[in-house]
Amino acid sequence: METVQTSQARECDVLIVGAGPVGLAAAIELGQRGVRCIVIEKNDRVGHAPRAKTTNVRTCEHLRRWGIAGALRERAPLGVDYPSTIQFATRMNGYPLARIENAFFCKPGAHPLYAEHAQWVPQYLLEETLRAHVATLAQVDLRFNTRFESLAQDEDGVDAVVSDGNGQHTIRARYVVGADGAHSAVRGALGIDMHGRGALARHRMLIFRMPGLADMHDFGPAVMYWLLNAEVPAVLGPLDRDDRWYFSFTPKRDDDDPVEMLRKATGLPLEPEVLTGGDWTAHELVAERYRAGRVFLAGDACHLHPPYGGYGMNLGIGDAVDLGWKMAAALQGWGGPALLDSYETERRPVHDRFIQEAVINYATASERMASSGLEQPGAEGDALRREAGPRIADTKQREFRTLGVVLGYRYAGSPIVVPDGSAPPPEHYSDYVPSAHPGCRAPHAWLGEDDALFDHFGAGYTLLVTAGAPGQADALAEAARAVDMPLTVLALPDAGLRELYGANLILIRPDQHVAWRGDALPGDPRALLDTLRGASREYPLARAA
């Protein structure tokens, strides 16, 4: 039996296991709030595999809040103005079928519904952006090549045993966040099972370099080329500078050679330089619970789904944001017990909705849309392609035009959100209706050129005043000071904002979701704040008149 060195446990507020996008996002959310974190990662995170390739609108809004959206744009290898087009064709030398423009809303420019456009960028470059920012945070200690081994916890904290090049040692933390992916060692140590459908299908990925490939076809630039032929249906796309591409297909046999399949799928005599590759399996799984005492799970450690719609990494970053500000509040003393309890209550329904959408999209993967008739020459083939094109474009809108999912989720039933008796906005995968209904993301508005309303929200709670409410802001600020709850008062009397938000007074959480709204404060502002900070589990449902 190995001896664990315990002469002096290293201490921190939060130990984060995993330095992928989710772990790094948690470190930023906590570190910028002054929370001492140690982040450990068993790997060095160097490689060509892209994993995710879309940083969506909501995640880019978080990057804006952290002050690093511009840094990500600068790393985008294809350029910010590269079109996020999805091209459907039979092969790269075959027939065009359909196109979807501005997939994921990557097109630059001011938009009335969001503060930041999405960015097509490989995950490893997003990780570089996050790591560079983490390096500026004095409260965060990032350690690679350090493996989580085990943990034990008591009512005051967690002792985690980790190993690195110097052997094993213990880290003492108030909380632990398991952001260590699909095969989470933290989840395993807690004995938490995943439930749902596993191993839906196997896919094979190839990352390769092929100079000149962008000029070997007539379809123009795109981020994805869906190749819908019966022989090898597949997806191909540019990944990085220096002619680096990705290729994905579903193998019919174990020995299907990805380079040979690339040639068949594209119809081109390619001689690629293989950089990396491998198989991956699509799952539909959710953890039975996201918390055990002082240990929490986030990202792929607690939910897995097919990667159709670009949800996975972005969903995990949303977990990190939700958990991060709440954990900081608990550590700083103003967050009550219901605050951390609300993490799973809020995020699980969001996960369920996003997973449902991903599974729907998976049902129309390339191998399920391909047809031999699409390559038939002559008038009969032309007729089939004319019929198929609009059907393909209409079907795949659900995967590539999804503001209703990305921005339209809400925290219904949360113990730290006060309902106001109004009807929530309708849910739709594409159509997003801005709403300040409690639990929703606060509606975006431009106040000037590149001056978003979000930019004026505080790091803690924000009271947005859109119409006259004499003395109300002072009363709430006094109640917040009494419990050390950070509150920024943002007085912007404006008829347009009043109409957009539907109330004179709106309390907005640190994550830019609406916690409460009303035309006047309730008789006991302290009771309202106690609910929002998780110190009270009950509050009247109807808002003050």
Task: Give a brief description.
This protein is α+β, with helices and mostly antiparallel strands. It has helices at residues 21-31, 57-66, 69-75, 123-134, 185-190, 258-266, 312-332, 337-362, 366-369, 378-400, 403-406, 472-482, 495-501, 525-532, and strands at residues 5-17, 37-41, 54-55, 86-89, 96-100, 119-120, 140-144, 147-153, 158-164, 167-178, 194-209, 224-227, 234-240, 244-249, 273-287, 291-292, 295-297, 303-304, 446-448, 451-452, 461-465, 487-491, 505-508, 514-518.
Give structural notes.
The chain has 545 residues and is of the alpha+beta class. The protein is 29% helix and 26% strand. It contains 14 helices and 24 strands. Strands 1, 2, 7, 8, 9, 10, 16 and 17 form an eight-stranded mixed sheet that branches. Strand 16 and strand 17 form a beta hairpin. Helix 1 packs parallel to helix 4 and helix 1 runs parallel beside helix 7. It is globular and about 75 Å long. It starts with a strand and ends in a 13-residue tail after the last helix.
